[in-house]
Amino acid sequence: MIRKKRKVKKIRGSRTCGGGSHKKRRGAGNRGGRGLAGGHKHKWTWIIKYEPDHFGKYGFKRHPSLVKKLETINVGELEEIILKNPDKFEKEDGKYVVDVIELGYEKVLGKGKITIPMIVKAIEVSEKAREKIESVGGEVVEL
After folding, report:
1. Is the pLDDT assigned to residue 1 strictly greater than 70?
2. Are 73 and 105 in contact (CB under 8 A)?
3. pTM score of the predicted model
4. Which of 63, 99, 110, 121 could form a cystine bridge with 129, CB 3.0-4.6 A?
5. Cα–Cα distance between 24 and 13 in angstroms, integer?
6. Contact between 100 and 82 (Cβ < 8 Å)
């Protein structure tokens, strides 16, 4: 039979809300431990049902010496920097020479539009950035 009232609403106002004797739900002794205590014992079925990946390991951590975290800048931002203060950059054959390391970056990424030909010096340059720089008539120098 479908209940007309939810059990919670039905039980509100009764002294023990369906917990039997008023002594039985008292204190923390009926909690079964705090948090996930008993996950290997009396709460095992809960763990299996709701957190099946709780135990065990997967994946791996790379050694910190192998992880590269380079400071990046986009091609579009480079152009904005040049347009804001063109006096700071040298010119070679009508192209601005931009040393990305002097600006505090190491890698150039390809987001944004570019219209000015420039010679970009960086530690790393993404393929898309290289395409955009060369399509306008610029050059890429990897250090």
Report:
1. no
2. yes
3. 0.58
4. 110
5. 18
6. no
